[in-house]
Amino acid sequence: MSNFFKKYLPFTGATLQTFVTYRLNFFFFMSARLLRVFVTLYLWQAIYKSSGKTELMNFSMIEMIIYIVISDLIANVIMSSNALETIPNEVRSGLISMSLIKPINYHF
Predict the structure, then answer these.
(1) pTM of the predicted model as reported, rounded to 2 decimal places
(2) What are phi and psi of 25, to 5 degrees?
(3) Structurally, how many domains does the chain consist of?
(4) Is 95 a domain residue?
(5) CA 91 to each of CA 25, 79, 103: distance values in angstroms, whole numbers, following the listed order
(6) What DSSP string describes 42-80?
(7) What is the predicted pLDDT for the residue at 67?
(8) What are the pLDDT digits (tens) for 59-82?
(9) Comparing C-alpha atoms, which of 80, 83, 79, 76 is closest to residue 99?
(10) Which is nearest to 68 in space by CA: 30, 39, 31?
(11) What is the distance between the terminal CA atoms of the chain, rounded to a whole angstrom?
(12) Is residue 2 part of a domain?
């Protein structure tokens, strides 16, 4: 298993270095993510308080918080992969051949 991760370590380091290089961009990106989650949580908290109930449609406030956090994490993983844009662009430009001959999983 450690050999598996050793292959991807340089790519992880390069990604982290990109984030460090563009610190302001990273700060605004993370701030926007957190703001979106907090606004959503605040809205649901207001909905629960205004209804006067502890459950809405059989969901408690705790379950709603868990749902919001997990769905945001999943959405960010899907959106950060850029697979929907990267793969077709690499096929059109011919760069996919360079990615396919590397000794790593293309989808990772």
Answers:
(1) 0.57
(2) -60, -45
(3) 1
(4) yes
(5) 29, 20, 19
(6) HHHHHHHHHHT-SEETTEEHHHHHHHHHHHHHHHHHHHH
(7) 94
(8) 999 999 999 999 988 887 777 666
(9) 83
(10) 39
(11) 15
(12) no
